Amino acid sequence: MNVVGRVESVWRYPVKSMRGEMLPEAYVSFSGVLGDRLYAVHNSAAPTAFPYLTARARPDMLRYRPFFREPARSVLPSNLAEAEARGPGITPLFPGFEDLAVDVETPSGEILGVDDDRLLGALTDESSPGALTMRRSDRAITDCRPLSLLATRTIDGIGRAVGVRLDKRRFRENLYVDLNSGESFAEDAFVGRRLRIGPKLTVHVLERDIRCRMINLDPESLEENPDILQYIAKNHDNRAGVYAAVLVEGLVRPGDEIVLED
């Protein structure tokens, strides 16, 4: 068994481009981490290829904190144990609408339902001139692929190169991983290969992750450091981390082993 590392932490982002939450465990289905990017703010004035309002236009979106009203019901399928007892290949139930209800804490501390018009009103200004609506999808509204992974050593290496200690939350990954190689960008070697993460979750790493201005934004201060993206663009083809497709659904927890299967 070729163990290549371990999971450092598991994250999901209930509303695209708003603050994420670190989880003690997560169920990863074919569409990604359960509850990840369940909602996104649609902007009628945005390009049709990417019609969402994000922190690239409104950095303060990173200060909005979405959370599930029923957190225990939002992490795992309710019949997971029964489905797994029936044998491999049984797809458990996706949580119902009421199990995945989301509220959002605004920067001022006000708690609003994700579908409250006052939330959209707070997000409307000259940087979002179109009509805003909240969209929901049971399939994660990710930029590209259902699951993202990034090595902690890659973050450290980028930080050393630009002379800044980087908060990993800049990168908005689902899985941050500690790889045995200890090298920055070691995850690139897994493109085209299959990984088992934890006891069951199996993924095929498809491609390296193309980066955008989001990683320049400090998630707390909102200060922008263009050196970060410039370094990655110049030295690593504008890519950091990898995207994966899920082959076998399963639970994942911090500390889980990552095994290279082919």
Keywords:
262 residues; alpha+beta; 7-stranded mixed β-barrel; 5 helices; globular
What does this structure look like?
The protein is an alpha+beta fold and 262 residues long. Helices cover 15% and strands 31% of the residues. The chain has five helices and 16 strands. It has helices at residues 71-75, 80-85, 117-123, 152-162, 226-235, and strands at 2-12, 21-23, 26-29, 32-33, 39-43, 65-68, 102-105, 111-113, 132-136, 147-151, 175-179, 194-197, 201-210, 239-248, 250-252, 257-260. A seven-stranded mixed barrel has the order 1-11-10-14-13-12-16. A three-stranded antiparallel β-sheet has the order 4-3-15, with no helix packed on it. It has a three-stranded antiparallel β-sheet with strand order 6-7-8, with no helix packed on it. Strand 10, helix 4 and strand 11 (175-179) form a beta-alpha-beta unit. Helix 4 crosses helix 5 (226-235). The mean pLDDT is 94.
Per-chain topology:
Elements: E1 2-12, E2 21-23, E3 26-29, E4 32-33, E5 39-43, E6 65-68, H1 71-75, H2 80-85, E7 102-105, E8 111-113, H3 117-123, E9 132-136, E10 147-151, H4 152-162, E11 175-179, E12 194-197, E13 201-210, H5 226-235, E14 239-248, E15 250-252, E16 257-260
Parallel strand pairs: 10-11
Antiparallel strand pairs: 1-2, 1-11, 1-16, 3-4, 3-15, 5-9, 6-7, 7-8, 10-14, 12-13, 12-16, 13-14
Helix pairs in contact: 4-5
